[in-house]
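Run log // design_07
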């Protein structure tokens, strides 16, 4: 006797992946904006953008690393289902550009995963001005990569539709 259906099982995993990705996307976007456009001095309450970029960016580093790894692991687990039930019909339908973007997504996610130790090191040494440029560049790369991964994953899900 099954507790939940197979479709429900995979839908739950996809939702977990989505929630982790959204949390990662928010944290990375906050941190990247704070790193690139830091608030020097706030005279008064400031507007939305000023408050958005006035976060303590270094405090996000560990959470971002943990979120990236968890999102990657859950995405890798979901990938087994994708490889068999979604990729093959997409190839049979001739959606080569869509498939190519997803293949590229795999590479971007893996490159970003390998950058996490350097990213974490740069943010744990945020007080050292010697790492300012490298810290900003790695953070901006990760933020752009995260947005790319999120959009491509969303579009690919819409092409085939999860559970179809």
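design_07 sequence
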């Amino acid at each position: 006797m099954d507790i939940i259906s197979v479709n429900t099982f995979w839908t739950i995993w996809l939702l977990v992946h989505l929630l982790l990705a959204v949390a990662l996307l928010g944290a990375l976007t906050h941190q990247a904006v704070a790193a690139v456009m830091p608030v020097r001095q706030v005279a008064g309450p400031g507007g939305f953008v000023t408050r958005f970029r006035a976060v303590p960016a270094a405090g996000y580093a560990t959470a971002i690393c943990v979120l990236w790894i968890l999102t990657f692991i859950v995405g890798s687990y979901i990938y087994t289902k994708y490889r068999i039930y979604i990729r093959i019909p997409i190839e049979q339908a001739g959606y080569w550009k869509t498939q190519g973007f997803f293949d590229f997504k795999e590479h971007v996610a893996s490159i970003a995963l390998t950058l996490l130790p350097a990213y974490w090191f740069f943010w744990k040494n945020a007080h050292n001005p010697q790492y300012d440029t490298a810290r900003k560049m790695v953070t901006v790369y990760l933020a752009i990569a995260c947005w790319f991964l999120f959009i491509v994953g969303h579009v690919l899900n819409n092409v085939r539709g999860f559970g179809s």
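Helices lie at 6-36, 48-53, 61-85, 87-92, 96-124, 132-160.
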